[in-house]
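User: My advisor asked me to double-check a structure prediction for DUF853 family protein before group meeting. I don't want to rely on an old file, so could you generate it fresh from this sequence?
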Amino acid sequence: MTGVLTETGIFVGGGGEGYTTPQELLLKYGNRHGLIAGATGTGKTVTLQVLAEAFSTAGVSVFMADVKGDLSGIAAPGSESAKTHEAFVKRAGTIGYDLAYTGFPVTFWDVFGEQGHPVRTTISEMGPLLLARLMGLTDAQEGVLNIVFHLADSDGLALLDMADLRAMLTHVGERAQDLSLRYGNVAPQTVGAIQRQLLVLENQGATQFFGEPALALADLMSPTPDGRGRINVLAADKLMNAPRLYATFLLWLMSELFEELPEQGDSDKPKLVFFFDEAHLLFDGAPKALVDKVEQVARLIRSKGVGIYFITQNPADVPDGVLGQLGNRVQHALRAFTAKDQKDLRRAAENYRANPRFDTETAIKEVGTGEAVTSFLDVKGVPGMVERTLVRPPQSRLGPLTPEERRAIIAASPFAAKYDTPIDRESASEILAARAASAAQEASAQPRLREFNNATRIEPARADKPVRKTGGGSSRSDSIAEVFGKSLARQLGSKAGQQIVRGVLGSLFRAR
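Assistant: Sure, here is a fresh prediction for DUF853 family protein from the sequence you gave:
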């Protein structure tokens, strides 16, 4: 009987006549990337779960997105009382597999912080290229966004969260005329358009994704006490409602791994295996520059010890430049109802090294649930001959955990204290707000200073300066005594004025 691991790799299932020939994915080529494809309901999720279990058993950390919400069960062992148990026992006997149920070390993550530890990154780490993709900006708008990042870097203004980016955009809009002379046209309308796209992101919940503490990639690869690889499960069922955010996040994660990890060279196993479910979302409507970046990362990241496995319904969803780098392939059934489907089926079959025992195109149409057409790199690193393979049963539970089980795992996680509480340190929005407040205070002081400087000064009359009369009124050079005397004379002309004068004089005499 065969276990999860063979001497050299991962036992995927049985192939050949009667499904008795072990089909294995060599661990030393686990970083050569892979593809899991097939129509809905043909077993892609189970294959993903099987591979993740085996990599973890071999001490390799895994990151995978749980799109449908049913991969959380990998944290719990399968059960003999499950409906699938009898079928699994029969399949295990057919392929010569020693079935034993067990759970695996899982850490749950969630961009929205609801079903796992919050996943955050900063605006600066995301960068203008991925942000432009995330917001669907035009070339002109992306150009202005690059100016924003350049100015923030020049002025030492940290761009950590959405508030920082919004404040920096406002700052650039206010200086549009001056900046246009140095960097080209910076139209206030363009800045406004970017601000509106930021509002769309906020409505999709992206505000929680940007901030601190940012995810430390080393935590994804930290070993568990029992030596197994950590399985990081990203809750993506809600995230899928914002597909552009989902795709951009996963692309950012791959890019960060490429930038941060050192060169590893040839190794007996990878450091991390990355499963990218619903891979078509990464490429749908993506500009050429972004597709080129994905191809570059896929080509170079394997030297850092990272394997990327794309999961999608149709291999045609993946560009040829990326598809050509996927050495390990599991192709579940494809349906060919239309002319386009038939063309895609032929194209998928052409990507395999032919097996004289069967027609690959026919096999891809005929394989049942839990069965697949597979091809893995052989010991020389070249694609192996295509084989019809019955995929081994999983050791862990099929289906999701209960909410109580998930909460218990999250509470016991070593990362709860590090990531669950957000940090808001001084950054661009606070610094720019302080500058604006200081400028407003200085501006409010200027009118009072001008009023003081322009105020009229009244000086007493001097003997050497005769008083110049203008008409019947008093001049500006009248002394205080003269002004008082004239006022008193006018008041004596009325009864009320005489009473006031008598009162004042009476007070003076009493005082004496």
